Every structure is written in structure tokens, then in C-alpha cells.
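task queued by scheduler; priority normal; single chain, no ligands, no partner chains; default sampling; output format set to C-alpha cells
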Amino acid sequence: MEPESLKSVFDSTFAGIRQVREAFTPQLTPREVGTITSVTTGIAKVSGLPGVGFDELVSFPGGVLGIAFNVDADEIGVVLLGEYWLLHAGDEVQRTGRVMDVAVGDGLLGRAIDPLGRPLDGNGPVASGKRLPIERPAAPIMDRAPVTVPLQSGLKVIDALIPVGRGQRELILGDRQTGKTAIAIDTILNQRDHDVLCVYCAIGQRASAVAKTVATLREKGAMDYTVLVVTEGNDPPGLAYVAPYAATSIAEFFVEAGRDVLIVYDDLTHHARAYRELSLLLRRPPGREAFPGDIFYIHSRLLERATHLRKELGGGSLTALPIIETEAQDISAYIPTNLISITDGQIYLSPSLFELGVLPAVDVGKSVSRVGGKAQRAAYRAVAGDLKLAYAQFEELETFSRFGARLDEDTRKIIEHGRRIRACLKQPEFAPVSVPAQIAVLLALTAELFDSVPLDQMTDAEHAVREAAADIPSDVCERLDTADKLSDEDRETIIQTARQSLARFQPKPEAKNEPKSESKPDAEPEPKAE
């Protein structure tokens, strides 16, 4: 080959190489890498990440994630969200540059996930195209609207005497095994026909208890509109800590779309204990009952996210039902008093009533709703005041009558009427009652139609009134679910329907020739002289 041709070939080749080299721009992404100095239960101490921020997500080997909690000059305390037992001192740690977030969207309905968005129900990956941070600021006051629409729980004692409104925060508290979760599950089941989505957050629960709850929701058809965010008792405490915040972000996605959402935190006692464990391991100074000083803040910033938005912002609402456990009926303990002051009322469950078989074991005297009365339907307000007063008088006189004092006729009548109220407020588990049926029973109580029914037949009599409520004219039923006041004609229609259904429970008149018994049917026994 001629030298000139060789030169032209080399020149063209070098020109092509030069062109490629000049066009190449290296895409170098700087990585900030640190090292684990120590690992304990759910906590890792990390060095070598000078640019990490508070609450930033960091990545460990094996896909384990953590949240930067203590950001000191020389060392970072990280809360681990995975299998911390797989990590060792000297392992590499990397920054992610983002905060903890969770998958949100309609694809989560009917699914059970953990706070990281990983499915727990074995139905494949979760379909979601959007993620939201778990820590989000609460809606400003100017973006909120008054609470005016009730959230029907289906439980007569709550809907009538301790009403809950959409956008309210109502605390459920009581000793263990008194039916706190049952009230929350009943409320979820009652939202089937009320166009309310539900998020159930299980915090540190036993796997068997969670499985029972899932089975109940699936059997009753409630999983179609419910999302379950679950952490079990053997999960790392970091997961239990982030669970309610992740569940709230999932709920807020639907709220911002203009939907009404109910969220249940079961329970925040485990949440507080998980945070206490993390804080003590991070060497944060303990306060009362060894809880850190900001325990009030972590719950207040969570529950302040419950709201009812203005119509201009979609009009959605987030109603919160936090659950906490008391010890030996002590509602003045640290965590209960904190949450009572944060929420808009409380439903207290009494172990004494539970042992007596009064279910749900709601202590009406210690329970209150500071908002729900404004959201309660007018038909309920027409009967709730008299009912609560009569029940309070009964409870006081019942205690007095146990001393064996002789009772006059008026006192005896109040006690017998109160016993019928208590019997009517009883309700089996997973059996919500519709609004017309509740109004029929409550009006029959205020009209004293049950007072002549024997106590041992009260369950059947109350059931008969609820069945008869199906015969109430449809136009009257429609007015019961509106803000209109209960007219005298509607009241008389409902009372007449209840009176007809109770006719077969009335005692038969005694024959004139038969001597009357001196003791009355449900009279208190006379005290025996010692």
C-alpha cells in the first residue's frame, strides 16, 4: 500500500477516535459511603457520612434500610427497618438522598402490607405508581372545614351517646381484653354502604390477632375498601415506629382525592414503647416513666393530620380512632393523659361492665365526644340528651340501692328504666345496626315502651323493634339520615311501629279472682336482718 494511502487511513482512524473521545462525557455520581461502628437491637451507629440529614434514608448491605435519627458531629445513630441481625461492624453504609416514603394508590385497597410497602398477603407485588413521604405536615387551619357529618359506627351506645364526626379524633382506651379492637372493627364493617375507605394499622400485634382481624374483614366483605398496614411483635422496633406515619400517608392520598377515610391505630401504646426502646438505645435522656421528652410531640404530629378539608380542596376527611391500653383502669397514666389531651374525646371501656356481660363495655360516664354532637343527626339529638341523663341517674341510684335501702316508687321506676336502657345498648360483636333501627330502639326507650317488658325478654324485644324498623316508610327513613329535625308526625310513626312490635312482650293482665302477689316482678330483694 502506498505511504500516502496509509497516512490517510491512519488520519481518518485517529479523527474518528478523537471525535468519539471528545463526545464522551463521564457520568460520575459522587457517593457518600460510611461504615458501621456498632450494631444493637434495631440500632446502628455509623461514621463517615458528614452530609447526611435528619430523617434521611440510608442503605445497608442486603437491602436493609435505616433512618438517620441522631446526627452528631462524629457519629450517626440510625434506626434500622429490617433484619438488623444480618449486619456487622465494618459493613458499608450509603446515603440515598431521600426521606422515608411509602407506596400509595388505589392498588393498595384489599391488601396487607408492611410500612415499607412490601406485601404480606401473598398476592404478589403491590400495584402503585406514586409514593408519598411518611412524615408530612398537617393541613393548615385555613384549609380545614368544620366537622358536620357523622361517622356512623353501627353501635347504638356510640352513635347515640358518644357520636363521632368525619374528621374527628376519638380515642378508644381501656384495659387489655375489654373489646377495644372489636369497636374499631365494627366501625370499619359499618362503612360498607357509607362510601368511607378504611386503613387499619396494626402496631406490634401478635400474628394470630392480625390473622383473625384479616379473616373477619375478608369474611364480612370489608377488605374491598380497606388497607392493612401491619407490624408484628417480633418485627424491629423501627418498623413499629414508622407504621402509623406510613398508614396516615396512605390515607391522605385518598383524602386529597376528595374521599372520606377512617384510620385505626391499634395500638399507640405499642408505638410509644417502641419509640422509648429506640430512644434509650440511642442514649437519649429519659423522662417520666423512662419515655423521652418528645413522646407527646410524636403523637400530636401524627393525630393532627386527621382533618376535614374545605370543599375547594376536595372536601375529603380523615377520621382517626387511636387505641391505647390502660393498666388497672388508670386513665391518668402518662400516655393516656397525653392522648386524651390531643384527641377530641374518648371512649372508655370498663372491665367491670365487661365482666358483667355488658358488651360493648362502654362506660358512658367516663366517655365523651367534644365534636360529634355538632355532627350528630337531628334525630339522634332529639333522644340522646334524655337518654344520657336517665342512664346517669340510673347508675348513681343503682350503686345506692346496693346498700339495701328501701326504695320509693319513683326511684324504683328510674332503676327499672335504666336497666332497660342498659339492656338495649348491649350489642353483639360484628353486628352493626342501621340508622332507622337505632332510632326506633332509642325512641322506644325514651317513650318507656320497654319498661313493662321483663328483663329476661329484653334481647328478643329489642330485636323485634329493629326488625319492625324495616316497615318504617321510606320517606321517613330518608329524613332520619338528614340534618332535618324529627317532626312530631315522624316520631309518632316510629313509636307506633315500635309499640306494635312490642305488643307480644307485654305481661298478661292478672285475673280478678286471683290474689295479687305482694312482690313485684323485678323488685329488689328486701334486706335480711342479721
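post-processing summary
- Residues 36 and 46 are 5 Å apart (CA to CA).
- Confidence is low (pLDDT under 50) at residues 511-530.
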